[in-house]
Amino acid sequence: MSLFDLTGRRVLVTGANAGIGQAIAVEMAKAGAHVICAGRRNCDATLAAIADTQGTAEQAVADFADPMAGKALVNEAGPLDILVNNAGIIRREDSVDFSEADWDAVMDVNLKALFFTTQAFAKQALGKESHAKVVNIASLLSFQGGIRVPSYTASKHGVAGLTKILANEWAAQGINVNAIAPGYIATDNTTALREDPVRSKEILSRIPAGRWGNATDIAGTAVFLSSKAADYIHGAVLNVDGGWLAR
Predict the structure, then answer these.
(1) Are 49 and 16 in contact (CB under 8 A)?
(2) Which residue of 7, 28, 41, 183 pairs with 33 in a disulfide if CB–CB is 3.0 to 4.6 A?
(3) Which of 152, 170, 184, 224 is catalytic?
């Protein structure tokens, strides 16, 4: 069996209806996993893409604006081997004008929901003989400040920190917890940046790879971190950024 084969594994991907989450769900299925695609909107397009690859999947509706929604989702999903915490939102405004409502909305989805979803997953996984895997989607803004996204930056710094503390607590108990820090990826979250000719040019000029990333650039890394090939990786935040942080 290949180190990257996920046959027989059951994976829950949050925010799987589009973008990075959709690409991850499809690649997980192609690697042999049965994928539970969760999103606040239906994941019909993702299920269709998985069916096209002869993979297997199902969907569940969950709105992570309720930070405890993931707990119920995990408990209803049945046995799980892999959790990919991809669901996230962003709000843009000058920090001097940033509202409490936008702060709370982002922190609830990006950080609080992620923690309690992972906690529920771990309660199921602890004590099992097979390695369980958690893959969190962090960000370049887990390391940098960014501009006009204070709650997003704070939440993604928090994701990196949670990845490390949970790895510390669970590594010896059969759960790998790691994260991916995507660079500038062409998704709905970056539409405003890509449509701003000044900011887009500034961003592209710093990326050594010379292009915006694609969702599939992240998906392969998620499969790797979910596989046996990553059994000895704990607490890592892996940059997939076209070289941005190396610049």
Answers:
(1) no
(2) 28
(3) 152
Residue with tokens 């990919």: 84
Asked if 49 and 35 touch (Cβ cutoff 8 Å), the reply is no
Read off the tokens for 57.
């999947």
Query: pLDDT tens, 15-73?
Result: 999 999 999 999 999 999 999 999 999 999 999 999 999 999 999 999 999 999 999 99
Q: Reduced to 3 states, what is the DSSP secondary structure of residue 78?
A: coil
The domain in which residue 67 lies consists of 10-239
Strand ranges in the chain using DSSP code E only, listed in sequence order:
10-14, 34-39, 56-61, 82-85, 132-137, 175-182, 237-240
Q: Is residue 52 part of a domain?
A: yes
Check if 232 is active-site: no
Distances (CA, A) of 63 to 82, 172, 179: 20, 32, 22
Question: What is the H or E stretch that residue 120 is in?
Answer: helix 113-125
Assess if residue 206 is contained within a domain.
yes
CATH number, domain of 234, equals 3.40.50.720
Q: Is residue 4 part of a domain?
A: no
Helix (H) or strand (E) holding 69: helix 69-77
- If 0-12 CB within 10 Å is exposed, 13-18 middle and 19+ buried, where does residue 29 land? buried
Strands 175-182 and 34-39: unpaired
What integer pLDDT is reported at residue 170 of this predicted model?
A: 97
Q: Are 185 and 214 in contact (CB under 8 A)?
A: yes
pLDDT of residue 201: 93
Number of structural domains (the chain) is: 1
CB 155 within 8 A of CB 139: no
Whole-number Å distance between alpha carbons of 34 and 220: 16
